[in-house]
Amino acid sequence: MRTENPVGTEKLTGTESGHDLRHHGDAEVRDGGGSLVDLAVNVRADTPPTWLREHIAASLDGLAAYPDGRAARAAVAARHGLPVERVLLTAGAAEAFVLLARALKVRRPVVVHPQFTEPEAALRDAGHTVDRVLLREEDGFRLDPAAVPEAADLVVIGNPTNPTSVLHPAEVIASLARPGRLLVVDEAFMDAVPGEREALADRVDVPGLVVLRSLTKTWGLAGLRIGYVLAAPETIEDLERAQPLWPVSTPALAAAQACVGPRAVAEAAHAAHRVAADRAHLLTGLARFAQAGLRVVEPAQGPFVLIRLPHAASVRSRLRGLGYAVRRGDTFPGLDEEWLRLAVRDRRTVDGFLRSLERAVAG
Description:
The protein is an alpha/beta fold. The protein has helices at residues 26-29, 50-58, 70-80, 92-103, 118-125, 170-174, 216-219, 233-242, 250-259, 262-287, 312-321, 347-362; strands at residues 2-4, 9-12, 37-39, 87-90, 109-113, 130-134, 154-158, 182-186, 209-214, 227-231, 295-296, 304-308, 324-328, 339-343. A hairpin with a 7-residue loop joins strand 11 (295-296) and strand 12 (304-308).
């Protein structure tokens, strides 16, 4: 059953979703036999770097012992200038969404879409009725805080948002905080933003703030599963009680400790500027398809861009035949089959993609 609510919200009850919330970018490439150039998955190319591989490999000597997350937890806390009591290590950000859905007693959760679909999927799997706030293309998919129902006691939003690549101002998001409300901000791609401007991860002055970070995107560790939650100590305690014992493996803990150290933070900052330059190159190339009806959501601030294109499903199929995988957009609430998401890649890869896109659009 679906009912329409005021201020652009959509309530879903029972098991209804209307979208394939479990579809992710890896599905676009995993059946390609390794032959597809991947513009569907938002993991930085050429990662993990050699030094990180070697660091993780060295941790294998300790596999006989149970994982001890204290050093990694302290390193994450130090990276954000927070006490360790405000940090929880998780098996990727996806586990954090499951913990939030299962451990916290909320009555009216709201997910701001279009965005990463796992938060809603986890909430619905845990038996919650979920309200959607659908941001609009004509507004550039930017957040209007007034669209979020006042009665919401859990609000989830991404920043920068996957798949729109919109970076919402930190103070606009912070304005959603209310007494008795948890404000969950998915910052999985924030370290790909130069200067991490608009980040809320280090803030302790926003009531009910819960920030999720992933180390899999920038460092190419999707197969290792490592992320973390930053929140008030009482929220961390609630989530930790819902975790199984030793939820994060020894190699993942080693990766976490390394990826938040000064060397890694500096390398990620450099990579963020390189991604921004590569994204600008991609956007310049896409501009020449305007006469074909292609529109880009701008300004894009993440390591991916969202485009709208007539007959996008057919174009995506032709691109696949030409050796390129891109992410379909119609599995994101608020989007339809005319949307595609493109991961930012190096200039050589982008140039090859643009030549293939020209052929795909021509049919």
